[in-house]
């Protein structure tokens, strides 16, 4: 997964720890990184949700860590793709995403047959995180 940096080099997608207000570690956030000029761009598919998470922390957060790959489906898919291969490649990511979507759909069918509305809602919001565009 490559993207061009404003300096003209290639940016690589990786999972990084983002430290907010010097106190909160947000682990496994997908970012594009340029090793040439050091620029970091948060992956477009999770940008809005990282923003919302940081907004919820407020100005005086207590020190803690947030496993972003458990909060956000895309970060989860990318961290699974990372375990499958050394570098994040589009084909591996697509496969990991497809597997996760199928898994969520199976769960949704179970939730649906149990008429568990809360669970259904939770699964729907996870599925909608994955449908967000991830290639920019
Ligand atoms: Zn650069």
Low-pLDDT residue spans = none
Overall helicity: 40-55%
- How many strands appear in the DSSP assignment? 5
As a percent range, the share of strand residues is 15-25%
Overall pLDDT score: 89
Given helix and strand content, the structural type is: alpha+beta
Instruction: Give the SSE string.
Output: EEEEHEHHHH
Shape: globular
List the ligand species.
zinc ion
- Rg calculated over all Cα atoms: 16 Å
The overall number of domains is 1
- For the termini, the CA-CA separation is 10 Å
Biggest beta sheet attributes: 5 strands, mixed
Distinct helical segment count: 5
Plain-language structure description:
With 136 residues, the protein is of the alpha+beta class. The protein has one domain (2-131). It is built from 5 helices and 5 strands. It has helices at residues 44-57, 68-71, 73-84, 90-113, 117-131, and strands spanning 2-4, 10-20, 24-33, 40-42, 64-67. Strands 1, 2, 3, 4 and 5 form a 5-stranded mixed sheet that branches. Strand 3 (24-33) and strand 4 (40-42) form a beta hairpin. Helix 3 (73-84) packs across helix 4 (90-113) and helix 4 (90-113) runs antiparallel to helix 5. The protein starts with a strand and ends in a 5-residue tail after the last helix. The model has no long low-confidence stretch (mean pLDDT 89). The site of zinc ion has 7 residues, from loops. The site of zinc ion (ZN) has 7 residues, from loops. It comes from Cohnella lupini. This is YgiT-type zinc finger domain-containing protein.
């Amino acid at each position: 997964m490559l993207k061009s940096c404003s300096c003209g080099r290639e940016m690589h997608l990786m999972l990084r720890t983002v430290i907010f207000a010097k106190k909160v570690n947000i682990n496994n956030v997908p970012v594009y990184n340029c090793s040439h000029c050091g620029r970091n761009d948060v992956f477009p598919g999770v940008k809005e949700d990282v923003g919302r998470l940081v907004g919820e922390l407020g100005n005086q957060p207590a020190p803690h860590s947030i496993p972003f790959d458990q909060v956000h489906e895309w970060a989860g898919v990318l961290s699974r793709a990372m375990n499958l291969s050394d570098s994040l490649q589009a084909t591996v990511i697509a496969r990991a995403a497809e597997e996760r979507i199928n898994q969520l759909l199976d769960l949704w069918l179970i939730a649906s047959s149990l008429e568990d509305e809360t669970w259904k809602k939770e699964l729907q919001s996870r599925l909608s995180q994955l449908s967000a565009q991830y290639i920019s």
